[in-house]
Amino acid sequence: MVVKTFFITTPIFYPNDRLHLGHAYAMIMADIIVRYKSSQGYQVYFQTGSDDHGEKIEKKALSLNSSPQELVDKNVSLFQQLWKELGILEHVFYRTSSPNHHFKIKNIFTKLLEQGDIYLSEYQGKYCITCEDYVSKSKAINHNFCPTCQAELRTINEPAYFLRVSKYYSQLIEHYRKNPDFLLPNNARKELFSNFLKEEIPNLCITRSDINWGIPVPGQQKMVIYVWFEALLNYINSAEGENKFNDSKAEIVHLIGKEIVRFHAIYWPIILFFLNKRLPNKILVHGWLITPTGKMSKSKGNVFDPLGLLKKYPADLIRTYLIAKINFFQDGVFSEDLLSNFYQDFLVNNLSNLVSRISKMVHLYNGGIIPEFNSDKSLENYHHECLYLVKEFQVKMDKYKLTDAFCQIKNFLDSSNKMISDLVPWKLFQEKKYIFLNQVLNHLVNRIKIISFLLNSIIPNTSKEIYKVFNINSDEINWDNCLNFSFLSKVKIKKVEKHLYEPRK
User: How is domain 5-311 classified at the architecture level of CATH?
Assistant: First the structure.
């Protein structure tokens, strides 16, 4: 049996400060994908990390009377605490301040220099410290402000090394032509071509001479390597990444925010061309979390601290809200009021209430025993609906339409509540239609089984609690048997003493 391999990465996050909810969003979405792929039998490798260098970190450390390394170490510990509290699965955490990264970057720089793909010249132009980005005159707002974050730009005039990215412009365009789904969603691809790829791209400046916190250029101790150039190489510098980028059969996916598309969709593929490495299969671009004051960002000071939110709300609520209410490929609004309302609407009134209703009916009408499955023609349409919703969930997940996939679970819940309203189990009991009632109960329990299985990728803690109620062995349920309605026949279930989620006071 051939084992399918899947490698997913998030951006490596910038540890100049604590992470905000936008960063947690990227990790949660990646974790949902990892759990789904694992359920399908993939051998999954999950990588994230920290982008430890750059001028912002150097300046922040100086303002705190700290060393840059002390600053990033402190903030990275908070990153890792957050991932644990959010229930993020085991992953590789790659740091660009590690000796391994320094060693490999210097080797790559030397190799490309010897190949003639890096050359020494001079950079004259604008630079955004906030974005750690060189900004051309044509892109700068009023010649002096960053088009991405609107911060005032700095003028730089210094000797610098450049990467000949123009060498692979035609090859990059050809790759996009042959692989229309390489960059998703389609509007990200359109914007990339409209703003950056409609004409040949200029060579990229990849060194700085006026900062100290970075990886020194080999033989040039007064220069450091540009933070974006060395940061992108994290994906292949880990042992796992190196193996996967040498494996033509592995499925490789990068998950990024839309503000860093240019680096990942232009410079990263070109760097891989230079190194004679394969390209990832897909680059997925998620939207921004929007607040009433605009995009959530540390520089604007309008961020939500996820560690603070986790002291007030369960992790599964935050995970569910972010997939349900923030359309994966689009921007979405977040506020505590919206989060609290969603808790009541989805977790309390819908999911928790349905679990309780079905459990109580099984105890009231069949002594807490799940009835044995026997096919009943009058329930065929309900069975077909289950088959359809599970299939649609898989189709959406396979296309990375995560919010659309969640909608299938919501449809499952709504249709299950409607089934109860339509068939009225308590009336069947009163009329002593026990045979049909048993089939209705069996069907409803199996619906909960399917729903909890689909939810396992999204809210694993809640899914496990539902498994406990209905005596479902999590090690046994899978895609092959989740639709088997005989799977839970004659099983004794637990009595629900209290709802999975109670209304907030």
Answer: 3-Layer(aba) Sandwich (3.40)
* Residue keyed to tokens 């100086």: 62
In this prediction, residue 64 carries a pLDDT of 96
Counts for the chain of helices (H) and strands (E), in that order: 20, 16
Q: Residue 251 and residue 205: Cα distance in Å, rounded?
A: 31
pLDDT tens, residue by residue, 444-496: 999 999 999 999 999 999 999 999 999 999 889 999 999 999 888 888 998 88
User: Has this prediction a pTM greater than 0.70?
Assistant: yes
pLDDT in tens, 87-132: 999 999 999 999 999 999 999 999 999 999 999 999 887 888 778 7
Task: Tell which residue, 394, 378, 389, 397, has the closest CA to residue 413.
Answer: 389
Cα within 13 Å of Cα(448), Cβ side: 31
- Look-up of token digits 């990790």: 27
Q: Is 336-469 CATH 1.10.730.10? A: yes
Distance CA 339, CA 293 (A): 17
Q: Which two tokens stand for residue 455?
A: 């939810």
| CA separation for the pair 302, 294 (Å, rounded) | 8
| Separation of alpha carbons 237 and 245, rounded Å | 10
Q: Rounded to whole angstroms, how far apart are CA atoms 323 and 330?
A: 11
d(CA 279, CA 277): 7
Do domains 5-311 and 336-469 share one topology? The answer is: no
* E strands in 192-267: 204-205, 207-208, 216-217, 220-225, 251-257
Short-list 4, 184, 87, 185, CA closest to 455: 87
Q: Where are the domains of the chain?
A: 5-311, 336-469
Lookup result for tokens 């209290």: 498
Q: How are the residues of the chain apportioned to helix, strand and coil, as percentages rounded to the nearest 5? A: 50, 15, 35
Reported as type and span, the H/E element at residue 71 is helix 68-85
